[in-house]
Design goal:
single chain, mainly alpha, four-stranded parallel sheet, two-stranded antiparallel ribbon, 23 helices, 6 strands, about 5% strand, globular, membrane, MFS transporter, transmembrane helix, transmembrane
Length: about 550
């Protein structure tokens, strides 16, 4: 009788994930008793998905003898890969409407949509009508550009992600931007995989499989987040560099300049700078000087020239302290590192991606051939330095589907996973089929949980839009991130109704607002609480005083749940 075969790759991966989960639960929940949005997502999404996936891996590993064999030859057929990429991008576009109801949850996404709408309407920054100047911060309370902020509304982020959304809007649907970036990145990833592993089509297929089973890639592609653009342009840059010719390097240089202008200029540097070391180790001095100069130029353009252009066009910084440029970015990074939570945030990355992605990637790095790598002969070295470096930072992401600060490195992990697969003497494709089934199981659960989380906020927004009021004042006390529902219809801050954060008003301005409009509505915890928005214990004496003033003036009606 043939002894049952066990997949040690699946079994060891499952055990490692289980131990990681136990450590994350013990430290973050039991010891630190964390109550941030990251902890809420961990308990509601990541922990159950990762636990469910680990158990499934164990069951498959122990019953490995009966798992049917699969094939990898589809990865060598460009037509099949192209169809799979198109279907993946189409799923992202459909999911924008089916999963999220075309609603952007976070302020990051909303300001990207606002800037795209402004560009679509012909503005780089939207002028504020004189009658609304005193209410400008109540209408756009967060993530606004400081330049000319006393007369203009603009996004705090750099423009290229929103510019691409505006272009897609002109083509018919701004929500095509994420899926198109996604498709571009996946095609570039395949080109890079074929150049790195030209004689191993099975390993190139593993690379694509890791990407095409990433719930993080799929769901983030449904949103206006710039992270999908970072994934795409990182892979385009890599594919161009791997060409090795002058045209490829020039194209990569242009791509790097675009990357830096997507939303924050410093974000791509973690991916790009390890390649400077790679060029140095391989003694490619021309490439080193060229790409080093490109990175310096990118920082100069987006950290110096762009702010100066904004000052020339719209005026100096107002309403907030002026930006300190590069020093300001470093201070912001230091502040976020104080919330260093690797157990928490890496659990999110594990759960939202194929559970073999990281194990195979670590195997690929382990078997890199370090002598050759230190001679600059292994592209896995810069890929690993960037990916593991960003993972080690474990910066607080706030919102995001998966760990969004590693989003631009999913391609790096996938390529390393392909190299890990190529290092096996007798690779067994059955583990891949098992990982796909587990990814579909966990991904379905995570998408359902994402929809459950977004739906109450989308419903609150719908109630505001259908209130019939001239002005809606949002009282966010007691709610988690309720400030994010302060937005106008269709990213128009002065649509009907005009939505404001009551906490940014003064008694005098509130009195004038109540005198000016007959129908002022209030959205508070009595409405968003029953609708399912997360409740957190916080209050504001300032807002309480403004609500008392409204009662004395007999101003405002509360929107019913």
């Amino acid at each position: 009788m043939t002894r049952p075969r066990v997949s040690w790759l699946l079994l060891v991966s499952a055990v490692c994930y289980a131990l990681w989960l136990l450590a994350a639960w013990g430290v973050e929940v039991e010891w630190l008793k964390g109550r941030t949005i990251g902890h809420e997502f961990f308990e509601a999404q990541d922990l159950p998905a990762l636990a469910m996936g680990s158990v499934a891996l164990v069951l498959v590993a122990l019953a490995f003898r009966w798992v049917p064999k699969g094939g990898w030859r589809w990865g060598n057929d460009g037509r099949i890969v192209g169809i799979l990429i198109a279907l993946f991008a189409l799923a992202a576009w459909a999911g924008r409407y089916a999963l999220f109801g075309n609603y952007s949850l976070s302020r990051d996404e909303e300001v990207a949509e606002f800037a795209a709408k402004a560009m679509h309407d012909g503005w780089l920054a939207r002028p504020i009508p004189p009658e609304w100047l005193d209410y400008r911060r109540a209408i756009m309370p967060e993530f606004f550009s400081p330049f000319g902020a006393d007369a203009y509304w603009n996004s705090a982020y750099l423009p290229l992600n929103s510019a691409f959304r505006a272009l897609c809007g002109w083509l018919g649907d701004a929500n095509l931007s994420g899926p198109l970036f996604l498709a571009l990145g996946l095609f570039a990833l395949r080109r890079a995989a074929l150049r790195i592993m030209p004689n191993r089509p099975d390993a190139a297929a593993v690379t694509m499989l890791m990407a095409l089973t990433s719930t993080q890639l799929l769901v983030t592609g449904m949103t206006p987040y710039a992270m999908t653009g970072h994934f795409a342009l990182n892979m385009v840059w890599l594919a161009l560099v791997l060409r090795g010719d002058r045209l490829g390097h020039i194209g990569a240089g242009i791509t790097a300049l675009l990357l830096a202008g997507l939303h924050q200029y410093h974000y791509p540097l973690v991916f790009l700078t390890p390649f400077l070391l790679w060029f140095a180790l391989s003694r490619r001095w021309g490439a080193l000087l060229f790409h080093g100069a490109i990175l310096a130029l990118a920082v100069f353009i987006w950290a110096r020239l762009w702010p100066n252009l904004m000052i020339d066009l719209y005026g100096p910084a107002a309403d907030v302290r002026p930006s300190a440029g590069v020093a300001d970015k470093m201070q912001s990074l230091a502040e976020r590192l104080e919330k260093w939570r690797p157990l928490l945030y890496m659990s999110r990355f594990f759960a939202w991606n194929n559970l073999l992605l990281v194990p195979l990637a670590l195997i690929g790095l382990w078997r890199i051939g370090w002598r050759a790598a230190l001679r600059g002969e292994r592209v896995a070295l810069p890929l690993g330095l960037g990916a593991l470096g960003m993972a080690a930072l474990a910066i607080d992401p706030g919102y995001g589907w998966g760990y969004r600060y590693l989003h631009g490195f999913i391609g790096s992990f996938a390529l390393l996973a392909g190299l890990g697969w190529a290092s096996f003497k007798r690779p067994d494709s059955r583990v891949l089929g098992a990982s796909v089934l587990v990814a579909l199981l966990a991904g379905s659960f995570l998408m359902a949980r994402a929809e459950d989380y977004v739906a109450p906020y989308a419903e609150v927004h719908r109630r505001i839009m259908e209130s019939g009021a001239d002005v809606v004042l949002v009282d966010p006390r007691g709610g988690r991130y309720v400030t994010d529902v302060v937005r106008g219809p269709g990213s128009d801050p002065l649509g009907h109704p005009v939505v404001m954060h009551i906490g940014w008003l003064t008694p005098k301005r509130l009195e004038a607002l109540c005198a000016r409009y007959d129908d002022v509505a209030i959205l508070d915890i009595s409405a968003f609480g029953p609708l399912g928005v997360g409740i957190v214990p916080w209050g504001s004496r300032w807002i309480a005083g403004l609500r008392e003033q409204m009662e004395r003036q007999d101003c405002g009606r509360v929107i019913a749940p």
